[in-house]
Design a protein that fits this description.
4-stranded antiparallel sheet; repeat; 9 helices; amino acid binding; alpha+beta; ACT_dom; 8-stranded antiparallel sheet
């Protein structure tokens, strides 16, 4: 028996009957197929080494090959990138099924992902499964062993704390996690435990303010607990990675515009030409319009200069590209500058914590008492 105490994204009690009914129906039905909106599309899977301008090159290749990007999600973590891109033929509007064209697409994208130094680990393929997109991104990054890579950016004070111990008298392994709360946190953790072939028998998840506390009692699918120190350390690394992959570093930019051929290639090229790196992206198309979300930093993963952000907005269109969320560091910097102006002093050099690059999460999972 599983009991969930949930709220809406603003922390309020659910009162919309249509939402409640949708939740009930969803929990009563097991969905094996992907979303109907993905029907009639060709799914491309990409993994490789992340670098500034990589997305620009990927979308430029797809545009050149007359592929229209309809939906896409892009994650980056520890210097790696994973993306699921749903495309259709620009001319016919149908799925791309010609084997020779598919081979050309895969080969050219693989060359882009390889760059100069990623010959062995760059991968492109046509997705044949029906897995949920975000679940598949976890699987792709897990298979790419992103959890073993040396972090390119280490956020100060924001790393999740994961502890693993065995409860021998009950035959379980117990995993405790403490981290910053955010939406889809439980989903990310449970996906990873499932993909690692663990079964959760009991769990307690609580949230307080912006913190989340998760405890899982689990075993292998064969009924045995974790058996070695090496396995314990692997579980810790994999769970930390599962929580960090969705972390949104940088400024959140939203592009809302009429859809047209080559739009993504142009927008991401503008990012690249101005030294902005995309750390996460969500591309969606509805009828003839697009709503694309990008999180951007500078080329080193640090805070992007606000003047560069505004310059990029001028080039793409102020009404089309809007700043939707600023890292808290922007507000702190503005407050410090204001204090310096009032005091008449000259502001000295500031050491900025990388941890403050992680955006403040405004939403929580609510109070969740038990999950198995």
């Amino acid at each position: 028996m599983d009991v969930f105490h949930v709220t809406d994204l603003n922390g309020n009690k659910l009162t919309d009957e249509s939402v409640i009914n949708y939740i009930e129906q969803s929990l009563e039905t097991i969905h094996y197929a992907r979303s109907p909106s993905m029907d009639g599309l060709t799914a491309l899977e990409l993994t490789g080494t992340d670098r500034v301008g990589l997305l620009s090159e990927v979308f430029a290749v797809l545009s050149d090959l007359h592929c229209n990007v309809v939906e896409s999600k892009v994650w980056t973590h520890n210097g790696r990138i994973a993306s699921l891109i749903y495309v259709k033929d620009c001319d016919s509007g149908t799925p791309i099924e010609d084997s020779q064209k598919i081979d050309r697409i895969e080969a050219r994208l693989r060359n882009v992902l390889k760059g100069d130094n990623d010959i062995r680990s760059a991968k492109t393929s046509i997705s044949l499964g029906v897995t949920h997109t975000e679940r598949r991104l976890h699987q792709m990054m897990f298979a790419d062993r992103d959890y073993e890579r040396k972090p390119i950016i280490r956020t100060s004070g924001e790393s999740p704390v994961v502890l693993v111990q065995n409860c021998l008298e009950r035959g379980y392994s117990v995993v405790n996690i403490q981290c910053k709360d955010r939406t889809k946190l439980l989903f990310d953790v449970v996906c990873t435990l499932t993909d690692m072939q663990y079964v959760v028998f009991h769990a307690t998840v609580n949230t307080a303010a912006d913190r989340a506390y998760l405890e899982f009692f689990m075993k292998h699918t064969d009924g045995t607990p974790i058996s070695s120190e090496a396995e314990k350390q692997r579980v810790i690394l994999c769970l930390q990675a599962s929580i960090e992959r969705r972390a949104s570093q940088g400024v959140r930019l939203e592009l809302s515009a009429a859809d047209r051929s080559g739009l993504l290639a142009e927008v991401t090229r503008t990012f690249r030409e101005n030294g902005l790196n995309v750390t996460r992206a969500e591309i969606s198309t509805t009828r003839d319009s697009v709503l694309n979300v990008f999180y951007v930093t500078d080329g080193a993963g640090n805070l992007a200069d606000s003047k560069i952000i505004e310059s990029v907005r001028q080039k793409i269109g102020l009404n089309n590209l809007k700043v939707k969320e600023l890292p808290s560091i922007y507000h702190k910097k503005a407050e410090d500058e204001e204090k310096n102006q009032h005091s008449g002093g000259v502001g000295g050099a500031m050491l900025l914590s990388l941890g403050s690059l992680v955006r403040r999460n405004l939403c929580s999972l609510g109070w969740i008492r038990s999950y198995s």
